Request: fold
Amino acid sequence: MIRIRTKPTRQLRCLGVVSLFVLASSALAASDTKFNRANDEFAKGKMPEAIRDYETLVQEKQWSAPLFYNLGNAFFRTGDFGRAILNYERALALDPQQPETVANLTLAREESRSLELQRGRLVGTLLKNVTVNQLTIAATVGWWIAIFAVAGIVFNRRRTFVLGLVAAAAAVVAAGSAILAYQIDKSQASLAIVTGRDVQARLATAESAASVLQLPSGSEVKVLSRRGDWTYVVLPNSARGWIPSNTVEPVRL
Reply:
């Protein structure tokens, strides 16, 4: 089930300045070279080297769904299911329409017995099918259609009823898309993955504090706040607790 995915070909936009075009071309070529080298190391079973080169691209902000997918596969092969899940989640945040990533994420969760946050049915469905960018585009297009329809009503009195319906429908679509985009963005912004092993969520910021829940590697939490070396989170059982900050990483970079 674990498959490696190559990075899509990048298309450069015309920059108008030759020097900038050359610099951009060189940067893209360098990132593609690193990605291909990491893929080759993965294919040869050199997982530590592949992980190092994939993470170099992450640090350079060369983010893409294929990059996080391949990095997740590399961590999966090393048995680090927490970080595998983290990177599969990052890949799906960029492009939810990836059946291979969804399948591998399911396998990783089964291996680690990780816990998932409880979500509303609507938000959970949307997270699996659309991105914030797609909803933002839908909202923008809807508002423009509504604006043009209203302008048509002002300048064309003969089609007031039809244009009014178009304006109303477009405004509803735009408003709905904007609200859903906000909900998904809010959900993704606070989502984090436990990368430590069998992390204890506690009632207070001390190792001696009572445990609320044991979190297997790869479990989802919602970050609420941070205090020193501790992070306060919503847990998969809807309770709240403190976990060491070095045992959890946000999905959104």
Notes: The radius of gyration is 23 Å. The chain has eight helices and seven strands.
